[in-house]
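Researcher: Next sequence.
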Amino acid sequence: MTVQNVLPPLPETIYLRLQQTAQATRQSLTDVLLHAVPVGSPPGWEDAPSMFQTDLAALDRLDDHSLWKVVRAHRTEADMEHHQELLDKNSEGTLTESERAELVAIRTEADRLMLRKTHAAALLRWRGHVLPPSDQL
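Model: Next structure:
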């Protein structure tokens, strides 16, 4: 791993808080900063499954209005009913091969949607927005 030296000017209140944390936890100021930066950074997408990473990375470049659209996106009632029908057939053991492939595709798309929504919400929070409870989105 390459290391970059960065010397950002810190307001005294932040410096003192970090210094006090370092003393209280018996860590170096550098260690406290190295812990604080990732925690306070925008959400990463690198830990998501590789098939979704490009899509999640693209969200970082969206404006807030577009991110709100992603957060508020949802599957239609008809899509959810069809998904449930396929799940029921799968549990009954009556799913055809084409239906099995469709079920995998639907599941993949549902995972993609939820990851996009979660990442967009995290980006909005990081940008200072307050999100309503999920049942109000």
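Model: The CA atoms of residues 52 and 111 lie 9 Å apart. The radius of gyration is 22 Å.
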